[in-house]
Amino acid sequence: MLIRYKKNYEKIAMGLLSFMPTEKELKKLQQTMKEYETEDSKQLFLWKEEDITGIIGITILENGDAIIQHISVNPSHRHQGIGKMMVKAIKDSLPGKVVTSNEHTASFLEKCEVEGC
């Protein structure tokens, strides 16, 4: 289930985001976290079943459509469909809106479209 990011999840969120190739450098990762915490158009969600195993970050455009900026799953929980479930949950939360990718999430979203999300 998707849950909205809160400050008390910061260490877990930073750990999951650090698996993104663009977020390897600590200063960049801290800047990204600050953007999600301060910019209304940026929203960060965690995927929680028993434990928090994934993270997905989106930017909401003026027309209500969304761009998936970040998506990451804990390596020990990959290949279980968690990424697909996160994308589906985002799409379901934005009925009638278009959910697209950026250059860093495009390959996953293309795979997701082929296999069904």
UniProtKB/TrEMBL annotation:
Entry keyword Transferase: yes
UniProt keyword terms in alphabetical order: Acyltransferase, Transferase
Signal peptide range: none
Record-linked InterPro entries: Acyl_CoA_acyltransferase, GNAT_dom
Domain N-acetyltransferase: 3-117
SUPFAM superfamilies recorded: Acyl-CoA N-acyltransferases (Nat)
Keyword Repeat belongs to the record: no
Protein name (Swiss-Prot/TrEMBL): GNAT family N-acetyltransferase
Species, as recorded: Litchfieldia luteola
Lineage of the organism: Bacteria, Bacillati, Bacillota, Bacilli, Bacillales
